[in-house]
Amino acid sequence: MVSAFAPGRVELIGNHTDYNEGYVMAFAANMGVTIQGEARSDETVKLRSKEFGEDAFAISSLNKNVHTPWADYTKGVLIELQKAGAPLSGFEAEITSTLPAGSGMSSSAAIEVATALLVQKLFNFQFGDMEDPVTRMTLAAICRNAENEFVGVKCGILDQATSLMGKKDHAVFLDCREQSVEAIPLHPDLCFVICDTGVKHMLLSSKYNARRTECEEAVRVLQMNKIEVKALRDISSQKIQEYSGLFMDRVFRRAMHVTSENERVLAAREALLRNEIETLGRLMCESHESSREAFENSTQYLDMLVEIARSLPACIGARLTGGGFGGATLSMVYRHDAETFMAELTRQYREKSGKEPLAWIVEASDGAA
Question: Is 159 a catalytic residue?
Answer without folding.
Answer: yes
